[in-house]
Structure formats: structure tokens, C-alpha cells
């Protein structure tokens, strides 16, 4: 046996009673601490409710008042609504005028279309006549040249 083992073995018998004693002392001390702390916590709670909470509450109310935006003036909302209704009224008036004059507009469009068609037809005839005259000239020239070349070949 080693010298340490000889010293430790007698102490092993003393450990269980020491553990039980330590457990009892610790339980007693924890109970004493809880008895002492409970009134202190109660007093702290009352202090917070009576002194600190009102200060925090007033601080939060003041912060809320500072952060809250100012109320909008009602006059700001009148102009856009007025402009909207004015635009709507102008649109309705324009629609009524268009509906009343749409028949006359259709007639004038038909007349204008007929005149344009007549004018375009005249222009096509004139262009055709000019093209026909140019084609006749070109044919005459080509015929003369062809005869001239045929005469040189013979």
C-alpha cells in the first residue's frame, strides 16, 4: 500500500456524514437567504410601482407626443378633390359635346373622303396619261434605233 492510500482510507468513512451535514447547512442557509430576500423584493416592487414606474410612464408619454406627427390641415385635401371634380366635369361636358356633334362630324368626314378620293383619281389619271406619253416616246425612239441597227447589220 502506498503512503497516500493509508491516509485516504480512514477519511473515506468520514465523508458520508460530512456530505449530509453540508446538505443540511446549505438548505438552512438557502432558507435564511430566501426569508431575508422576500421582503427586500417586495419593497423594491413597491418602490418601482410608486416612484420609478410613474417616471418611466411620463417619459414614454412625452416621447410618444414628440414622435407623433402633427395633424394634417383639412385645406390640403380640398384642392386635389376640387381639381378632380373639375376634371370630371370637363370630361363629361366634352363627352356630351362629342356625342351631339358626332353626326355632323361623320358627314363632314364622308364629304372630305369623297373629295380626297376624287382628287386622287384625277391625279392617277394624269400620271397615267403622262406615263403613257413617255412610254409612247420611248417606244418610238426604241423603234427608230432598232431600225437603224437593223439597217447596219444588213
Which strand-content bin applies to the residues? under 5%
Count the E strands. 0
Task: Count up the helices.
Answer: 3
Q: What's the gyration radius in Å?
A: 58 Å
Overview of this structure, please?
The chain is mainly α. The chain has helices at 3-12, 15-67, 75-153. It is elongated, with a radius of gyration of 58 Å. The chain starts with a helix and ends with a helix.
Task: Present the secondary structure layout.
Elements: H1 3-12, H2 15-67, H3 75-153
Summarize the structure in short.
The chain has 154 residues and is mainly α.
Task: Quickly list its features.
154 residues; mainly alpha; 92% helix; elongated
